[in-house]
Amino acid sequence: MKIKALFVLFLAVMIFTLNGESGSPGLEKNLSLPDIDSLINETYYFPSKAFSQKPVEYQPLERFDLIFSGHDININSREYDKIQNLSVLTPGRFTHVLAYIGKDKDGLAYAVEMNVAKNQDFKLGMDGLKVGGRFYLYCLGSDFDNESCPENSFVYGINSYDYVQAKRLKPALRQKLLKHEVQLLETMGTDLAQHYPFQIPLYISFKTLSDKVAYLVDDGRENGADCASYFVSLFEEVADVCLDEVRMDASTLSAYYLDNKMGKRALIPGQYNPVLKRTASLNNILGDLGYAILDNTPRQLSCSSAASVKGIPMPDLIFNSPSLEKIEVTTLSRR
């Protein structure tokens, strides 16, 4: 029983941390990173790719625009490896999200995101399962991708994704957000300095070893965040801006792995499977071994007149939220 339950601990980590591995935090020695408050609020021409077979187009990004990335499961030239598995482990087309902040004095653009550490450190304590990771500042490159980032910086591997696309908050929400620009930058600056921690959005404790149940976690900014919940909770708590229809509840998440064609393909690699010591599907673990994911207690959002919510934010749901709008590509060409 305990061995099988330990399997679920690693299962949960795989579900919610693999989406951070396409970034490259790497070693943190001798880094040359600008202070976030020194970044210039200037338009950045971002290389977006709506579909894997489409050419790169450039979207003009402004501060706090959200960038989404994902992998294409249908690329036939690639074996069913970690990258393809990632595209089905996290529900939806987009599996990761970060936010554009501004440019440095040399014209290089920077974004922020939550990411797991390159060498993941797992710990199970009285406060649940923890994984190494934190809030990062990433270099994206220059306008039209003309210049690369310096080697001694965190470089976001945009080219490793099959599609990347940005969206912007709708005008009324964006205007409200920008009224809190100073507070948002101060909060993010503090989060960078204090290594604001990565939080798995699933509560797993020693009790999980016996009751075979794990609960979704949506506690705002209190104990850390993952890539999606960071921006949702930051906008809510600092700027009083709520994004609509961005959370997935436990029943929907479970149904994805049990019933969805793509979800059924989600696998746990053998090195994370102490029971079978081989790759196994999430469908088998949830459907045949009797484990369950349950909702967190519904909570009231800080935003005015907001109803109580349950579930956890997902990158693809944020991308498709009615609170965001499309950013048209520019007609300017790469110089």
Overview of this structure, please?
By secondary structure, the chain is an alpha+beta fold. It has one domain. Helix content is 25%, strand content 24%. The chain is built from nine helices and 19 strands. Strands 8-5-4-3-9-19 form a six-stranded antiparallel sheet. Strands 10-11-15 form a three-stranded mixed sheet. Strands 1-2 form a two-stranded antiparallel sheet. A hairpin with a 5-residue loop joins β4 (96-103) and β5 (109-116). The longest helix has 16 residues, at 2-17. The radius of gyration is 20 Å and the shape is globular. The mean pLDDT is 83.
Keywords:
single chain; 335 residues; alpha+beta; six-stranded antiparallel beta sheet; three-stranded mixed beta sheet; 19 strands; 25% helix; 24% strand; globular
How helix-rich are the residues, as a percent range?
Answer: 10-25%
Largest β sheet strand count, sense and barrel closure: 6 strands, antiparallel
The ordered H/E elements are HEEEHEEEEEEHHEHEHEHEEHEEEEHE
Assembly state: single chain
